[in-house]
Amino acid sequence: MICTVPARFVKVIAKAIHCLAKIGDELYVEALPAGLSLRTVNSARSAYACFLFLPDFFHTYELNAESGSSSQDQQKCKIALKSCMAVFRSPQMMDKSVNRCQIRLNMKESRLDFILNCRFGTCMLIVLTMSVCYCWMC
Question: With a threshold of 0.70, does the pTM exceed it?
Answer without folding.
Answer: yes
